[in-house]
Amino acid sequence: MENRVKKTILVWEPYFFMAFGLFHLHRVWGLIDRSSYAEFWIGVLENKGLFYFGLMGLLAALCILGMITFVRNLHNNYWWRWIYLLGGVYVLFDLFAIAAGLEFWNRLLRWMFDVKSSYWNIVWMFFVLLGGFSFVWGVKLLIQRNRAVV
Question: Are 56 and 99 within 8 A, CB to CB?
Fold first, then answer.
């Protein structure tokens, strides 16, 4: 007989997606006021103050937690846990590239925050939609987890 382990949604997972979603949903600000949004984030990236290191540390910790969860459940994962692995690799690379000052990444960020870019709305709307999906997914996972626990 096959030993089957029941898939479970860990207590932190819905909140992970909801927090990720809220982080990306704040980008609506960039669709409303390009200049102040770009000025704020370029300032954060250039000044590298307490907010920058706190945010980078939190993002790195969440990515590592997600990647550990993916690996620990390697043969018993939900499809959406691939987001932890693929998104985690991307975010950790992004954090590394920013911290290391990689020139090509800096050019990409400058392009993304170019308020005169004809692609501005496409870039930031993508992140807003990603945030909306992530937040709704987190709520769905929370509901599923609560039903399974009861």
Answer: yes
pLDDT at position 116 is 97
pLDDT tens figures, 80-127: 999 999 999 999 999 999 989 999 999 999 999 999 999 999 999 999
More confident residue, 6 or 65: 65
Count other C-beta atoms under 10 Å from residue 61's C-beta: 10
Return the half-sphere exposure (C-beta side, CA atoms, 13 A cut-off) of residue 111: 9
Q: Which amino acid is at 86?
A: L
Residues 11 and 146: their CA atoms lie apart, in Å, by 9
3-state SS of 28-62? HHHHHCHHHHHHHHHHHHHHCCHHHHHHHHHHHHH
Tokens of 15: 């909140």
Query: What are the pLDDT digits (tens) for 31-44?
Result: 999 999 999 999 99
